[in-house]
Amino acid sequence: MDLCHVPAAREKGWYLALMAPNIKGPNYAWLDPSRLYCHPQGLQDCLADLLQPFQGDPIDMVAGIDAMGFILGAAAAAVLQKGFLAIRKAGHLCVQTLAQPYTDYSGREKVMEVRTDAISAGLRILLVDQWVETGGTMRAAIELVERLGGVVAGVAAICIEDSEGGRWIRERYKCSHCVPPRLQPRFDHHQ
């Protein structure tokens, strides 16, 4: 799709066609949303769709998950006029942190961390990531927020797959994603 083209009928998820499929193999995510982020109307509509379910909800801060969640998370924070917190892979923060081990979508064991002075008891956090595939990364971010006394106000991602981890998150938290129900099976099976 042309990076300047905007379709006349812009139904939810039209911008998903901007994403490029993986050509590098199994150690990479199956879709790359970078082109979606380059398309001004696509990015705006994606953010509008992600944030619509949270209109009127009390949100104090937006947290984005390292690394691609920083793009959507920072953009969401700007739209909501809230602060932005980066939840990082271990070893990148030079301040006191709280750490949480997790297994990512590729099965690799990792550790995520967050600065301890950014979340106070009762602070309502909207967690944003690019994709929730197995749910391990998002679940680690949830654990960090809750261990510091924060409240997860919601979870937003371009796609939340219908995996065991995705279902665990959906059952416990208000969630938003951009994939229309008719396309969800294709995204769940990486087609």
Automatic annotation (TrEMBL):
Main localisation: cytoplasm
Gene3D superfamilies per the UniProt record, alphabetical: 3.40.50.2020
The keyword Ligase is annotated on this UniProt entry: no
A Pfam family reported for this protein in Swiss-Prot or TrEMBL: Pribosyltran
Subcellular location(s) of the protein: Cytoplasm
UniProt keyword Repeat present: no
UniProt signal peptide: none
Record-annotated Phosphoribosyltransferase domain positions: 57-176
Known pathway: Purine metabolism; AMP biosynthesis via salvage pathway; AMP from adenine: step 1/1
Catalytic reaction equation(s): AMP + diphosphate = 5-phospho-alpha-D-ribose 1-diphosphate + adenine
Enzyme Commission number: 2.4.2.7
Any one of the GO CC terms: cytoplasm
Biological processes per GO annotation: purine ribonucleoside salvage
Keywords: Cytoplasm, Glycosyltransferase, Purine salvage, Transferase
Subunit-structure text: Homodimer.
Family membership: Belongs to the purine/pyrimidine phosphoribosyltransferase family.
Protein name according to UniProt: adenine phosphoribosyltransferase
Gene this protein is translated from: Apt1
